[in-house]
Request: fold
Amino acid sequence: MSQQATLQKISNLAKRRGFVYPSSEIYGGLESAYDYGYYGTLLKNNIRDLWWRMFVLDRDDMVGLDSSIIVNPQTWVASGHVGSFNDALIDDKVTKERFRADHLIENWVEKNQSKLKEEHKDVDVAGMSLDEMAEFITEYGIKSPNGNELTKPRKFNQLFETEYGVLAEGKNTVYLRGETAQGIFLSYKNIIDTMRVKLPFGVGQVGKSFRNEITKGQFIFRTLEFEQMEIEYFFNPKESDWKAIFEDWKEQSTRFYDELGIDRENLRYREHSDKERSHYSSQTFDIDYKFDFGFKELLGIAYRGDYDLKQHMEHSGKDLRFTDPKTGEKFLPHVIEPATGLNRAMLAVLYEAYREEDLGEGKTRTVLKIKPQLAPIKVAVFPLQKKSELEESAKNLHKKFKLAGIISEFDNSGNIGKMYRRQDEIGTPFCVTIDFDTETDNAVTVRDRDTMKQERINVNDIVEYIRNKVSQ
Ligand code: GAP
Reply:
């Protein structure tokens, strides 16, 4: 992350500049729910499109999918989510406020490293059972953030339930999907029947998932609904070494964060302990990003084996085995799953890009140094003077950019310095000004966001010039 970025500053800028708004704010909002404004939507779409291109369109061993959010509820019984998709919930005995018990313990552990070192205690919070958490809280007298006693931790299922119509025999509970991954397993048979895929192959999907999160106040890092970009990569365990595929996906996933402009220094790989791993995984690695509130997960890579296909085969009674075209042998493929969050990727991009720069003479600027390929607006066009011929020419150039498919913004709202500052804060890599010389030298001034250097470019070349600088 940039040294100056904090969650407070990023969320303030995001609201002030139309990236992210608190959802339903006129009614007091809803914690952990956000709306994406114009610039936020553009940035998020650019990140999503990059992922889709890198992992689906550019590869011959991948296909894509867009599956339903609400599916047959047996899915979530078979996948284990109804039984095991739980967080450890704990209440403040006085205020009745609810917290994630593991998060309270993690915070306490972070602040009491030296004490635990003295006691030679190595604490694996993510792997703790409910009883172990209760013991730890009692042993160290951990209180709620309000300083009050806590209840015992208990299980809290994260799936959102809703009702699907009314059947003759009564209500029918369905769930909003807790991960996009299950949609891929549900469509797996249709995909192998229709897409001429050969093992190993993968299915990529981007879409919304929903989780009843207890932890609040982490802006778009942890929300009730969020977008996941998930891949299930199927292979024959007799022919492919899962460790090699796993390593390859670690490298490919890191390359994605390189493409987002994230410094590798700010990334950390973390292997899940045996106790921490999800019910379906026999190895999991996270890629974490260094936020100001600690290293936190952006992506998880899990070796799910044949867990999901086996479960769905048992629960549905349908044969989901793959037939080896050479030997005719029937078997269930194994799966490696790189799963990442789009909103978290966007938050990391904002953290990485955020700068407060001292311009001398008491002047400062805030600038988002987002890679031009990802920037929401690629170019802003200004006339040096309002209500003049310059304005007409600037509008025409703005239109020319748009016709060329380059996202452009026209602004004649204030003085040039203010217009630059505004574009800096939304990360626009280039500003083009039509000035009094344009008519005589047929050139415009192009100002670079990062260096603030200006150069004159001929009007006839300007669209190509910007296109070359901002294209993927
Ligand atoms: N199918 C595997 C799976 O869902 P996960 O680690 O629970 O794994 C994958 O989720 C990614 O989804 C995470 O690495 C994170 O980036 C994102 N994610 C999970 N919960 C989230 C939440 N409540 N808000 C925003 N992003 C979330």
Notes: Residues 179, 181, 211, 213, 222-223, 226, 228, 230, 297-300, 337, 339-341, 343-344 surround glycyl-adenosine-5'-phosphate (CB under 6 Å). The longest strand covers residues 294-305. The longest helix spans residues 38-57.
